[in-house]
TrEMBL record:
Functions in the biosynthesis of branched-chain amino acids. Catalyzes the dehydration of (2R,3R)-2,3-dihydroxy-3-methylpentanoate (2,3-dihydroxy-3-methylvalerate) into 2-oxo-3-methylpentanoate (2-oxo-3-methylvalerate) and of (2R)-2,3-dihydroxy-3-methylbutanoate (2,3-dihydroxyisovalerate) into 2-oxo-3-methylbutanoate (2-oxoisovalerate), the penultimate precursor to L-isoleucine and L-valine, respectively. This is Dihydroxy-acid dehydratase. Mg(2+) binds at D75, D117, K118, E439. The lineage of its organism: Bacteria, Bacillati, Actinomycetota, Actinomycetes, Streptosporangiales. Binds 1 [2Fe-2S] cluster per subunit. This cluster acts as a Lewis acid cofactor. It comes from Nonomuraea longispora.
Length: 549
């Protein structure tokens, strides 16, 4: 019975009248519109406008839209601050917020407008929990900036810090680049974490192919948002719930998209978390298996080539990627898409721009294998993630240079204490240890900028930004905070990374490791308060997606 017709819900009616709603409005299906707008960053800056367009679409299709929004955290703004610890934690808060609003208001359907990195998996996690018909709208990438005649993105900013450190760039040039790198609203402009997860939302079937590709500031975005509002009503009519869409085959296709588009290592954490929320079995090794078999077919920065997300949109978008992957037999077709199409429909409707160079045929890919690999070994018994960036396999053996925090490592890099061959180990930066699993961009950017990107390796229980590259291994599990082997490493210990064998080993005799294990004590640290304390108590291993549920 609707609120309008239930005699006992007069108090609720009076609140809705206060909002200007009529009895007729109250008899319509209610579509919650969750936007992840915050006014603190460019990534999600267009969400309020998009929410208004989605609401128009809902109304036009006979529904009653109700908007709300969550928090969001930008890694670029928090990177050099204690706030960086909040980034991954925000995923849980956003998921919980959307879930709580969904439970509180019993929406008949939902639209989730997402953009910046954590907002995408967070919304999908919440939708999986709520299991009401729902559509995801990815709010769109930023356009690239132009500087000295070339396209630039936030990746250039981070690497410019290292170039300044070695004198290849002075402060005024760095400042000039900062003024040009990010020209307006939207998510970081290439296949970094946000766009990787936007593609994941498409390939999972929750976001309609063709809507997320549209850059944030493109005029076409508004009409796409209105269409998404209508789609939410259609999804309600078809009872297109996440439990019908989030299947093992859909999850497989999402992993294929990460591999084929050279996506971010953060996708590993988020896919594991989404699988867990959806009740789907997914082991971290399965992601590595797909990445070994699927080539990178998009020439997107940072792993595939020189192009940005806006180039992909102009070339034909993720629909064109679907076409190429179907031609290569790399996708599972028995999946349900939220807009009612099949993958074959999406592929057939893809509009490939003549002469485009961004999406390749899978037989002539940009790189022969995916952008990441899952390794195991004595240093990471529960697995870790190697950022391969589509590069050839390599073997790196070198002495450990151990740091108990990202900050200590940054100081050593700035003092020129890191030399070629070193295996930098940064620990106590895991989900519980950080807490919050900081991204090591303040390390990887300067390493690349100093020309050390290919000659040193970095191993951490923290994680990486989508723009990080070099020989970097993150998500080492178990993490140091829980006494994993990474906690036992000492300066000078030999460490071997073998990407072809998918191994990461600490070459220290087991008897010696046992001695160290017996003597190990978790280092003292400042007592956290509030959300950090709650997070440390609840968060699981990176190999379980660092979920808290
Ligand atoms: Fe928000 Fe990159 S920091 S999308």
């Amino acid at each position: 019975m609707s609120i309008a017709d239930d005699p006992d819900r007069a108090p609720a009616r009076s609140h809705l009248y206060a909002m200007g709603l009529s009895d007729e409005d109250m008899r319509r299906p209610v579509v919650g519109i969750a936007s992840t707008w915050t006014g603190t960053m460019p990534c999600n800056l267009n969400h309020r406008e998009l929410a208004a367009h989605v609401a128009d679409g809902v109304r036009a299709a006979g529904g009653l839209p109700m908007e709300f929004n969550t928090i969001a955290v930008s890694d670029n703004l928090t990177m050099h601050t204690p706030g960086m610890r909040t980034s991954l934690i925000s995923r849980e808060v956003i998921a919980d917020s959307i879930e709580l609003m969904g439970r509180a208001h019993s929406f008949d359907a939902l639209v989730a407008i997402v953009g910046c990195d954590k907002t995408v998996p967070a919304a999908i996690m919440a939708l999986a929990r709520l299991d009401v018909p729902a559509v995801v709208l990815y709010s769109g990438s930023m356009l690239p900036g132009r500087w000295r005649g070339r396209d630039v993105t936030i990746q250039d900013m981070w690497e410019a810090l290292g170039e300044r450190a070695v004198g290849r760039l002075d402060q005024s040039e760095l400042d000039d680049l900062a003024r040009h790198a990010c020209p307006g609203a939207g998510t970081c402009a290439a296949q970094y974490t946000a766009n990787t997860m936007g593609s994941v939302a498409d390939f999972l079937g929750l976001a309609p192919f063709g809507t997320g590709d549209i850059p944030a500031v493109a005029p076409e975005k508004d009409a796409a948002a209105r269409r998404v509002g209508q789609m939410a009503m259609e999804a309600l009519a078809r009872d297109a719930r996440p439990s019908r869409i989030l299947t093992e085959d859909a999850l497989h296709n999402a992993i294929v998209s990460v591999a084929a588009m050279g996506g971010s290592t953060n996708a590993v954490l988020h896919l594991l978390a989404i699988a867990r929320e959806a009740g789907l079995p997914l082991a971290i090794d399965a992601i590595g298996e797909v990445c070994r078999q699927v080539p990178i077919i998009t020439g997107l920065k940072p792993s595939g080539g020189p192009y940005t997300a806006a180039d992909l949109w102009r070339a034909g978008g993720t629909s064109l990627v679907v076409r190429r992957l179907l031609e290569a037999g790399l996708l599972r077709e028995n999946v349900t898409l939220v807009d009612g199409r099949t993958l074959a429909d999406v592929a057939a409707q893809a509009e490939e721009r003549p002469g485009q160079k961004v999406v390749a045929d899978a037989r002539q890919p940009f790189k022969a294998r995916g952008a990441l690999a899952i390794l195991r070994g004595s240093l990471a018994p529960d697995g870790c993630v190697l950022k391969l960036g589509g590069k050839d396999d390599f073997r790196h053996e070198g002495p450990a240079r151990v740091f108990d925090s990202e900050d200590a490592c940054i100081a050593a890099i700035e003092a020129d204490l890191i030399v070629p061959g070193d295996v930098i180990v940064v620990r106590y930066e895991g989900p519980a240890g950080g807490p919050g699993m900081r991204e090591m961009l303040s390390i990887t950017g300067p390493l690349v900028g100093r020309g050390l990107g290919a000659s040193v390796a970095l191993v951490t229980d923290g994680r990486f930004s989508g723009v990080s590259h070099g020989r970097v291994i993150g998500h080492v599990a178990p993490e140091a905070y829980h006494g994993g082997p990474i906690a036992l490493v000492r300066d000078g210990d030999p460490i071997v990374i073998d990407s072809a064998a998918a191994t990461l080993d600490l070459l220290v005799p087991e008897a010696e490791l046992e001695r160290r294990r017996a003597a190990w004590r978790r280092p003292e640290r400042e007592v956290e308060r509030g959300v950090l304390t709650k997070y440390v108590a609840a968060v699981r291993s990176a190999s379980d997606g660092a979920v808290t549920a």
